[in-house]
Amino acid sequence: xxxxxxxxxxxxxxxxxxxxxxxxxxxxxxxxxxxxACEAIARQPEASGAVTRTMFVGCAVAESTxxxxxxxxxxxIFLKPFT
Amino acid sequence: MAILAMALPExxxxxxxxxxxxxxxxxxxxxxxxxxNFTETVVLEWIVMAVIIGLxxxxxxxxxxxxxxxxxxxxxxxxxxxxxxxxxxxxxxxLAFTPYIATVFLFSIFGSLISLLGVRAVTSDFSVLLTWAxxxxxxxxxxxxxxxxxxxxxKGFADPIPVMLPINILSEVxxxxxxxxRHFGNIAGGSIIMGLIYFGLxxxxxxxxxxVPVLTIGIPAVLSLYFxxxxxxxxxxxxxxLTMVFVSNAGPAEDEAxx
Lengths: 83, 259
Prior knowledge:
The complex is a heterodimer. By secondary structure, chain A is mainly α. Chain A has a domain at 22-79: F1F0 ATP synthase subunit C (F1FO ATP Synthase, Up-down Bundle). Chain A is 83% helix and 0% strand. Chain A has helices at residues 3-19, 24-43, 48-79. In chain A, helix 2 (24-43) packs antiparallel against helix 3. Chain B is mainly α. Chain B has a domain at 84-253. Chain B has helices spanning 2-12, 40-59, 70-90, 98-113, 126-155, 165-207, 219-250, 254-258; strands spanning 25-31, 34-39. A two-stranded antiparallel ribbon of chain B has the order 1-2. In chain B, helix 6 (165-207) runs antiparallel to helix 7 (219-250). Chain B starts with a helix and ends with a helix.
């Protein structure tokens, strides 16, 4: 392995790690959403079905940015687009 | 038996290498200068379709009004559950969507769960998810044109002010892209993490001088509960929920249509 390729691989690995910083946002957001859903169910237990359903869809949408980060990280590690 | 005798020593070695690739290409067709790949995914999709069709035929054979069989009770429960879900989420006038939603849900679940048999999940191929997301996109566009006409649909892009045109086009494109990427990222990411866990546990057992990777027994099953079962059901559910929400939002509101 020559020097250039090694630098590219190292850069890809570091980039993949940095891309996963995107996981912070959805983590905070989903935690907040689930906390609020728990409060809502505690206040109105009879609406738990609707609340849970809405929460999961909201979580899924909030998760997209994290998934984008994950896909970039996977591309960098396994497909190595720059080598 | 001979196959088993050959496969067993390999199986006992555990996963010694980790490779992440796309689905295997079985044959490539050249049609009109395009390379059309016939992949592993297509074969697995046929298997999934055969399983779903077989299940439907099995459950709905010999339906009766009185003295129903156990099979019929299961079939009725499933149909009622999905009908209630569509009615609660989309409203009564969208009930015609129930068969489509049920099909996508079943295909997604069985396509993901087939990975439990040791083959690639159908849903860890991005082209499958992109196809489903494009079907949702076509449904959204068709609903908008149906209720607003072609003029109304085109005018919707310049809503509320014409300056918003690029942002509206972007959000229209982002809807199917995000749906496909979300499902794909969850399933493919989960299977990669499971592969890493098998690989790591095998290496760890070799490091502890065990001939057979004992650590890979049991421990991955607990994690598989989340990464395979829970995540598969969640993603299938979320995909159909988003499809229903987007399509029903493309039409006018319930009371507006009634008036």
